[in-house]
Amino acid sequence: MTNTLPALMLLTANDVLRLSGYKSRSSLYRLIRQNRCPAPVSIGGSQIRWRAQDIEAWLGGLPQRVY
Question: Which residues form the Helix-turn-helix domain (predicted)?
Answer without folding.
Answer: 10-59
